[in-house]
Write a structure and sequence with these properties.
By secondary structure, the chain is mainly alpha-helical. The protein contains two helices and no strands. It has a domain at about 55-93. The protein has helices at about 30-40, 80-90. The chain starts with about 30 loop residues before the first helix and ends with a helix.
Length: about 90
């Protein structure tokens, strides 16, 4: 068989009678408390942010200073280097 079968070659065997709009009212929503209980019981990981812990290496404040600089510098450093970098930035303004 060297030819590919066409999808619209013989449409007489299509039975589309099973496709119809749903009838009746939509199912009632499950209360969020029940969803949370079931998800916690099955060890589902939540996407909600976790509260900050003391184990975090450094939490920086948002800085929205407009300086006219528009080139980004990305470097990979240790946590203590990042902390000292932001201390210098805060001190120098």
């Amino acid at each position: 068989m060297s030819d590919r079968a066409g999808i619209f070659d013989d449409i007489s065997d299509f039975d589309l009678s099973g496709f119809a709009p749903k009838q009746g009212k939509p199912a009632a929503e499950t209360p969020p408390e029940i969803v949370r209980a079931v998800s916690e019981a099955s060890s589902f990981r939540s996407r909600e942010p976790m509260p900050a812990t003391k184990d975090e290496p450094f939490k920086k404040d948002l800085r929205r200073y407009r300086t006219g600089r528009n080139v980004q510098l990305n470097i990979k450093v240790r946590a203590e280097t990042l902390r000292s970098f932001y201390e210098v930035a805060d001190r120098e303004g």
